[in-house]
Amino acid sequence: MSLLKINDLKCHYLTDIDTVKAVDGISFEIEDGEILGIVGESGSGKTTVALGIMGLLPENTAISGEILYRDELISSLPEAGMDRFRWKDITIVFQNGLEVMNPVMKVGVQVTEPMIKHLDISPEKVRSKCADLFRTVGLDPKWMDSYPHQLSGGMRQRVLLAMALSCDPKLLILDEVTSALDAFTRKEIRDLLVDLQKKNGYTMLMISHDITFVSSVASRITVMYSGKVVETGPVREILVSPRHPYTRGLVHSTPDIFVYKDLWGIPGDVPAGDEFKGCPFSPRCTQKIDICSKASPVLMPVGGRREIACHRGGIANLLEAKNLNFSYRLPDGEYIQAVDNVSLEVTEGEVLAIVGQTGSGKSTLAHILANVIRPESGEVLFMDGNVSRGNYGNRFNGIQIVFQDPFSSTSNRFTVLDAVKEPLYINKIGSNGDRLQMVKNALELVHLPSTDNFLRKYCGELSGGQRQRVALARAMVMQPKLLIADEITSALDVSTSANVLRLLKGLQNRRGFAMIYISHDLSLTLKIADRIAVMNSGKIVEMGNSHDVMLSPSDEYTKRLVDSRIGLCCHN
Amino acid sequence: MVKDRNSFIFRLLSTLFVILAINFFLPRMMPGDPFSTTSADEVGEDIIVMTEEQRLYYLNYYGLDRPLHEQFLVYMKNLMKGDLGRSIYYKMPVRDVIMLHLPWTMLVVFGATVISTVSGVVLGTLSAKNRKKGSDKIMMTGMIAFAEIPSFLLGLILLLIFSVYLRLFPLAGAVTPFADYNGPAEQAWDILYHAFLPVVTLSLSQLTGVYLLTRNTLITVTTKDYIRTARAKGLGEKTVWVRHALRNALLPVVTRTGFMIGIMMGGVVLVESVFSYPGLGMTLRSAVVGRDYPLIQGILLIIAVSILICNLLVDKIYGKLDPRVGI
Ligand SMILES: Nc1ncnc2c1ncn2[C@@H]1O[C@H](COP(=O)(O)OP(=O)(O)OP(=O)(O)O)[C@@H](O)[C@H]1O
Ligand code: SF4
Ligand SMILES: [Mg+2]
To answer: Cross-referenced CDD domains, in alphabetical order (chain B) (predicted)?
Structure first.
């Protein structure tokens, strides 16, 4: 039997200006003894859910749906009826703030107050029980006689916890209990919670925007976005393979999970206005389709206790390569297998890095994926169609490739305008006026001037970094869904290449295209990649989450690659 | 700590000095002197018309013909010895005159403080609890409109209705003249009976302030996180309101009460005049009319000192009530 069950809960704040749909139809259950985590960015409605369960929402809230505690409907109880459950059955540890506790009342009194009210207990026993509670949460009982302002944030959080435990509750709701604390205290509180849960078997609902913290305690996670649940499932699975684009963004912008990667938040904003009918994530989604802005997706089981709400069934595959083979014929008549039975997938909006030594076949693979050369065998599917037949390089929203050497990709004798305009011209896209505007836009994207003066410059007159940007603009002008960048920074000096890389990642993050980033430089790669594929003599020897590959490489070759990097970068 | 204390005492003494100086010079800046009053008609006492010769004699007798700074020095010196001087009008020590009238004023002021604070807090709480309902709106509008009536006018109205027409309360005085009481209970009753209207008038003049402050502070306090915490603990409405909300909302009310006593010390002069109540206010009025410099100085000093004491007390009490105030 589930301890708490929530059915289609809606909490809309009716303010003078508008209606805030803080919680908009969510359902979930918590089993007895389970720890469920709710994560989501600020404003996604997490606290509102917690307050809704406790019956503490302000008067100006329109509430509908059902909240059942042990099969008893508590959502429609009046204030006095709700008091029967408060603290004895359901307690909440509020996010720590100076004013969460009464400033003019000793903290000990505030902890004992609910005991006197709810438990049949003598005043002397109350005090000794309070002292016990203080010890349980790791506080010296001498603090019982202090006032809230005399305690530090961490101590106050402990008092709040002691307060919540005072009546031996069944269900503990924890709202951002560690967000305001330093890393050390956070770890202590976490251990304390885990400990308490083991000993007393509390059922917990843990709310936080800190997915690392939640996942270190909870067994299941529910991801909220804009008042709705977008994904739910067991912790490990969600962390390793998030299926909803929002979850992926959340996981990827968490520094504790992606230790090496630079932080890139999820671009865009939550749709405003209560008339919006579509998927709330659609303004920020990189893989939205027509229906996404018209109808809101419902939460559907996808197997393995996981559920996601997405019209496309979660993150979709953009490119799929199956059993690719390619070999070159050497002058002496022998064949060298440059691409050896390679299969890989690139999902929407993801950055896949392919790393390997020079000559490991990376560029050949890139050329095959971009349909520049044809594989001897195997096939490449782009958006579920075949690349070679669809020729996705020649149209908008297709595949574009930027090459290693900027001097070969843009001819010296082309002006900047001609170089960037060429793909439009070849593919007969737009009128002349349109093309000029598109070129200017593309140049702005890559942070190049779009003045007439600059447009008339010859590529030969540009620096290496500028030229690589022109090459990038030439790719961006076709608005690709997938950009293949083949060693684009290897010909540049360190500082220029760092700039180009930042620009590239920024573009990718903002425009939401997927990218295959090919490089032999592991350190740079780690800054931007979500996944890494390691190539050695034509084969992909290892592929996975970039931090997994880095921290625990399984293949010998990868280990060597990783070691060589550490030997280079860290002088210890 | 010691330094703090010293600077505090220094501040207190300098405040006192400024008050003393004003008390001394202000009355002397009024036109006329104690022996040339012509406007004594209001007091209704015998008018003693003096010859110029007599006048000069008395000025000399009371030392009022000496240079101002000399008079001030003498005044200060006597004050050090605890001597407030002699009232020219009453022909007895100022201290005795004050002692005769101060108790009545204290009775009225403290009575009014208690009544206005208690009823203001109660009404303010009721209003805050019924916020957004009609009763709150009506009460608030009424209170604010009521506060616009000046207290002496209010006193006059009350006097007319209850004393003149209904004859429920006396027209003047603090006790029934020449009364023969059967025991202290009857005496106390007589005193309360006479003090009732002045106290009520003065209370009403302060009620709206307390009411509004209580109501608004309570409304702010109830949006605080700790009220939500108290609710979450399932303590029940009454405990939440009284122990958590009201307890915090009363802090500014306490501060206000301190100031209020000061304001009432001023207001009581008018109210006492209206009800011919023989407190310090009435005495001050006649002293001003008669240019009785020593008496004016003495009364003003007592008022100033009592205001100072009240503020000190409030500071002390507030420190006890709010643990956040540094010791
Ligand atoms: N009392 C209120 N009146 C009106 N709107 C509110 C109220 N409380 C919250 N909101 C709005 O409801 C939305 C959800 O708020 P909520 O506090 O539940 O978010 P949250 O997920 O807990 O965020 P955080 O991580 O910042 O604590 C926000 O857009 C917020 O502005
Ligand atoms: S694909 Fe559509 S439904 Fe799925 S997350 Fe993106 S916008 Fe929402
Ligand atoms: Mg919150």
So the answer is: TM_PBP2
